[in-house]
Predict the 3D structure of the following.
Amino acid sequence: MVIENFESQKDKVSKWFLELRNSIVASFEKLEDIQNTGLRSEIPAGRFVVSKTKRNSELEVDSGGGLMSIMRDGRVFEKVGVNISTVYGPLEERTKKVMQGRKNSPKIGQPTEFWASGISVVAHMQNPHCPAVHMNTRMFWTPNSWWFGGGADLNPCIENSEDTSFFHAEMKKCCDRNDLEYYPKFKKWADDYFYIPHRKCSRGVGGIFYDDLNTDWEKDFAFTADVGSTFLPTFLDITEKRRQLKWTESQKNTQLLHRGLYTEYNLVYDRGTKFGLESGHDANAVLMSLPPVAKWY
Amino acid sequence: MVIENFESQKDKVSKWFLELRNSIVASFEKLEDIQNTGLRSEIPAGRFVVSKTKRNSELEVDSGGGLMSIMRDGRVFEKVGVNISTVYGPLEERTKKVMQGRKNSPKIGQPTEFWASGISVVAHMQNPHCPAVHMNTRMFWTPNSWWFGGGADLNPCIENSEDTSFFHAEMKKCCDRNDLEYYPKFKKWADDYFYIPHRKCSRGVGGIFYDDLNTDWEKDFAFTADVGSTFLPTFLDITEKRRQLKWTESQKNTQLLHRGLYTEYNLVYDRGTKFGLESGHDANAVLMSLPPVAKWY
């Protein structure tokens, strides 16, 4: 199958990721502003530092890039990254290898162009009562296919069943209003995907995960946009409930150990990380998901 | 080629690793004892916590195990692990996949027994003036081959050319007294092996690395033993020179960021880590190399 010119779809997708990025960045800075009493309110409200990223920055040819926004040492956020990127060019053989075994995966040894656009959010919180969170959605295009993928998952270090249930319920509502078959499938996919075999445990309490989504472009884009639109208020609600709870040093320590687990997951198993490192994207942008501080026992 | 019964060689190798482990553990505890004035001398001297590890601990069948010794929060060592293990059984298909492309690598889809014994030492130091260090040697056996592999590398966060030169010189002497061809080859191998492509830098200042060493068993074992015997006094000498130097908070921060790099290397590229996690060895033992605390900017 050869796909028609996809320029208008690509344009819509990357514009949406930019809009979503702008809402997230604005909401997160607002959250820093409203923490103006209580815990850590004596320090200045955190602000994002924004920088442009380039893929294969050592090459002359334009192969795309993105916008990396990182806020560090805030009142509420210890480190949060919001990245968007739109990258393109010839698909490298080493990248194709990573993609083998997937639906419509590009053929080894046969030159293929690709285009990919996505957003990635990872928040590591000051307060161990506030779960860390991850959301990432993307569209991938090659001349003979396109697909959407992504997901969102909650990573509490002190699990609170109220937050967990709320997060899952919101993700279910989001899936259900797009397709009733999605939630059971994408919830299970997250459970499988975010499992750490060597530790025999999951990195968090899961959420949803999907990939290779290629049914009807408008429908798949609408769902992907909905995942982003659902993620933001859900995460803000949970954070709002927990951000002023006092924590102990032992709880902070639990959080740092939990981040060690998160780091192991990201560096050993995460598809997005593997793809990013393999495809020569700015390592600081790919690895902005890594925690500010982590511990291993 | 089918190899004769290798029991006596296996026995010699695993006994040597135990002896070496005992010397290292004793020397490291002694180093804690002699830091009885100056920096951190007000806290108790660090001591190793020793535990047995089992491979595939959920299975009924004995597939080997080891001895994990970890010292934490000492006067000199922030976290140091000394592991030995002797593991055996049928080689799993997923493990064979990791080993493909190497000399005499076992065939996919064809049952193969294996036996492997090794020692691994990783020291993360309290004082950022003291380089972190790694040493690991091992013998691997399958019914149609055996080989030795290993290496040692220095990981300073504040590089000191005197320490770097001394470390390389001692490794060179060790290689040269075994085979004049080794040093140039194994030094370069370490430079290549400990390089982090996505960061475009090395994790430390290198040392030596070798694998698939299969010339004459007595000769290869003697060299492997010599690497261990050389590592210990070399590391102790460097530590002795640096352990009482005062450090600043900014230097400690540099150390924690450097450990982030070390973590990335170990989880993304390290062969031993991949083999350990793939072959179902105790994850705490495989990952004892991870730092007690690491930071990412």
In short: The helical segments of chain A are 7-34, 93-99, 161-178, 182-193, 217-242, 249-268, 271-278, 283-286. Chain A has one domain: 7-289.
